[in-house]
């Protein structure tokens, strides 16, 4: 191989790396945009919190510091990975108002299943107790399409466009755009 051929090969290698880098940038930017678009919104904090960072020549990171982002992805309580009702973290007891005697009473015990909790609450109501604290069921995962959690949905939307991004990057590096 002569010097001219080696230089052409080096330019080709540089162009391939540039095209891959650009295609990765297009892909990462699209994931970032989709996460902002498809995140659940109440006040918009989660949707606006997604950050895109270039880690090195061929990799990017898209992340959020919003603590509840994973809750909306996986669900919580009975809708979450464990499928268990949410148990109080700070309270060790359920507190009831006992209408028959006009005072509050506290029940300490372990109600680990929904059936145990329901049976106890039903008994307490029949005795004239009024629950102050009940354990929430949790929240289901947020699914923009009704089937796929929002992070997976955002990534899937981008995966459908990766060939487009590769073509655009090659065209741009090759001078066609």
Please give a structural write-up.
It contains six helices and five strands, in the order H-H-E-E-H-E-E-H-E-H-H. The strands form two sheets. Strands 4-3-5 form a three-stranded antiparallel β-sheet, covered by helices on one side. It has two domains: 106 residues, no CATH class; 45 residues. It is an alpha+beta fold and 177 residues long.
Give a short overview.
This protein has 177 residues and is of the alpha+beta class. It has six helices and five strands; from the N terminus they run ααββαββαβαα.
Layout: helices, strands, pairs:
Elements: H1 3-38, H2 45-49, E1 51-56, E2 59-63, H3 69-74, E3 93-98, E4 103-108, H4 114-126, E5 129-131, H5 150-159, H6 162-173
Antiparallel strand pairs: 1-2, 3-4, 3-5
Main-sheet strand order equals 4-3-5
Count of folded domains: 2
Q: How are helices and strands ordered from N to C? A: HHEEHEEHEHH
Note the main sheet: 3 strands, antiparallel
Indicate the structural class: alpha+beta
Number of helices: 6
Helical proportion, percent range: 40-55%
Strand content: 5-15%
pLDDT < 50 runs, ≥5 residues: none
Mean pLDDT, rounded to whole units?
Answer: 85
Overall 3D shape = rod-shaped
- Total strands: the figure is 5
Distance between the ends: 31 Å
Radius of gyration, CA atoms, in whole angstroms: 27 Å
List keywords for this structure.
single chain; 177 residues; alpha+beta; 2 domains; three-stranded antiparallel sheet; 6 helices
């Amino acid at each position: 191989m002569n010097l001219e051929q080696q230089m052409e090969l080096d330019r080709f290698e540089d162009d391939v790396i540039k095209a891959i880098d650009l295609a990765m940038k297009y892909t990462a930017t699209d994931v970032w945009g989709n996460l902002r678009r498809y995140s659940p919104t109440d006040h918009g904090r989660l949707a606006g919190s997604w950050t895109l960072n270039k880690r090195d020549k061929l990799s990017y990171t898209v992340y959020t510091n919003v603590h509840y982002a994973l809750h909306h992805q996986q669900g919580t309580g009975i809708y979450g990975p464990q499928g268990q009702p949410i148990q109080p973290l700070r309270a060790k007891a359920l507190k009831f108002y006992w209408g028959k005697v006009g005072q509050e009473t506290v029940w300490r015990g372990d109600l680990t299943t929904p059936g145990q909790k329901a049976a106890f609450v039903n008994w307490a109501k029949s005795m004239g107790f009024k629950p102050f604290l009940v354990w929430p069921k949790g929240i289901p995962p947020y699914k923009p399409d009704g089937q796929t959690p929002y992070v997976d949905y955002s990534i899937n939307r981008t995966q459908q466009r990766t060939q487009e991004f590769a073509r655009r990057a090659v065209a741009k590096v090759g001078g066609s755009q």
